[in-house]
Amino acid sequence: MHRVVVLALDGVYPFELSIPVRIFGTAAGSDGQPLYEVVTCSVDGNPVATSADFTVAVQHGPEVIDTADTLVLPPFVCDPEDDQDWLPELVTAALRRLRPDSRIVSICTASYVLAAAGLLDGRPATTHWNNADHFQRTFPNVKVDADVLFVDDGQVLTAAGVASGVDLCLHLVRRDHGSAVANRLARLCVVPPWREGGQAQFIDRPVPEPATATTSETRQWALGELHRPITLAELARHARMSVRTFSRRFRAEVGMTPVQWLARQRVEHARRLLETTDLPVDQVAAEAGFGTAASLRQHLTAAIGVSPTVYRQTFRTLAPTARAS
């Protein structure tokens, strides 16, 4: 069974500490059997002070990191201006225990630990948008993207902040076991399987009045029209707005342009079809609005790094005789 080890550092934020336990600990296969074993440790096996008014007594010391298939670092109270604060010797020693083939995940500002350890050099990564500029200045060799909820760079993954840790853990379940398992898990945890947009939608900006028209109904309508081309003008017309107003409001609400959002929804629809049906790839491309198998292959490879055929082989959830209704 895949073992997830959560490393709790002094000053850990309780909510983020609980995310991997809740998500991975709840994940189960169709037979109800757990898919992950989750254990929590500290750098010395001693209780860990949290950012709140209580202390957490963990059951393991750093030796369990030797057995981790995935290591998760939740954020903790720390001074970003103090470089030494991010990587004390006991943390460095704990990270040295990680096997070369293990995954390592940071949530929110725990990305500072990975960067200080050199694990993010030359890699794309994210952190909380409020710290992104400082993070980039402090670690210029990291390719910081402050406009996403999380970054998956293979064995090293970083989440933007707080609830985006939920997004990243669900993403890993989906990566490991497919959408059917991740979606069922999301329903059990009463969270969305994935969230639209990135951190840009949470950066401080004027909030529209409650009576102001939104683009939500148009987004919902567009999801039923993915099989055909949809123009920006058509979206704006459906929302009863000018193209300029619609584009501005859409980006403020979703954190990306309408064109970017449509492309993402088409990719997600294609992924669901590849996982749950045996439709030929060219038909999947047509159903998702890509037109040709070549176009689908290009978009899917750009989004997740694999071809439709490889994706289907990896994440197929139904028997070969199943067909889309």
Automatic annotation (TrEMBL):
Example of a GO MF term: sequence-specific DNA binding
Keyword Transcription among record annotations: yes
Domain HTH araC/xylS-type: 216-314
Name of this protein: Helix-turn-helix domain-containing protein
CDD domains per UniProt: GATase1_AraC_1
InterPro entries associated with the record: Class_I_gatase-like (IPR029062), DJ-1/PfpI (IPR002818), Homeodomain-like_sf (IPR009057), HTH_AraC (IPR018060), INH-QAR (IPR052158)
Keyword Lyase: no
Keywords: Transcription, Transcription regulation
